[in-house]
Write a structure and sequence with these properties.
The protein is mainly alpha-helical. The protein has two domains: about 60 residues; about 160 residues, no CATH class. About 70% of the residues lie in helices and about 0% in strands. The mean pLDDT is about 90.
């Protein structure tokens, strides 16, 4: 269990202690954007591998135990999470790595899933992690999925802060018509759901369903579903 805790602390530390902070700005100034991103991606990949290995070898220490009655809802929520992830990845947004310059497009970049939340990928990861944390109900799952949940939610704020520092007024114009929390801008009347549904289209949700089906199939081969 200590190995999993160490891996999770490392993964959170490199993100909250470096990414999205002024330390990142300093490193980029000294190393260059490309070398920094490459080094950070490698450090993140190593962290994920370490966490996965440690989780697989961690002892099972039940907390509230398996929540079997929640599983039907869990399957639906995981599908929703993957829709956010897949649609988010396939939708251009200035909150994505390498797309910061799209802020110069002004309101035109606010399309599709970005109308619902400017961080669809991270909210999808957060929902996925929360569902797995609830269903499994053991200490190792709390550490692993809890860490990913904290990282995803904290990451939305970190990205907002980084973009605000770097792009100032351009970012504020974008933030005014979007929201971090899903649907908040729509509820507040700063955006509309209708255009979002039209702009998302059909192929993105269909791709998410294909990914979901593939993940469900592989889950049954490499381990128990939703564990």
């Amino acid at each position: 269990m200590l190995n999993l805790i160490a891996a999770s602390v490392y993964f959170l530390l490199i993100h909250f202690g470096v990414s999205g902070t002024r330390l990142r700005d300093t490193l980029v100034a000294r190393l260059g954007e490309g070398p920094y991103r490459g080094g950070f991606a490698l450090a993140s990949l190593l962290g994920l591998i370490w966490m996965g290995y440690a989780y697989r070898h961690a002892p099972t220490l039940p907390l509230w135990g398996l929540v079997l009655g929640f599983r039907p809802a869990a399957y639906l929520l995981v599908l929703v999470a993957l829709v956010f992830v897949v649609v988010g990845i396939t939708t251009p947004s200035p909150t994505r790595v390498g797309m910061e310059s799209k802020l110069a497009q002004g309101p035109d970049i606010t399309r599709g899933m970005v109308r619902i939340t400017r961080h669809p990928f991270l909210w999808g990861v957060a929902l996925w992690a929360l569902v797995h944390l609830i269903v499994n109900g053991d200490l190792a799952s709390l550490v692993l999925f809890g860490s990913l949940l904290v990282l995803a939610l904290g990451g939305t704020a970190a990205i907002d802060a980084k973009r605000r520092r770097s792009f100032g007024e351009q970012w504020m114009r974008f933030a005014t018509v979007t929201s971090n929390v899903p649907f908040a801008a729509i509820v507040a009347g700063r955006n509309r759901l209708g255009p979002a549904v039209t702009e998302i289209g059909v192929w993105r949700p269909l791709l998410a369903i294909v990914v979901y089906a593939g993940a469900f199939y592989l889950h049954g081969r490499v381990g128990p579903p939703l564990t």
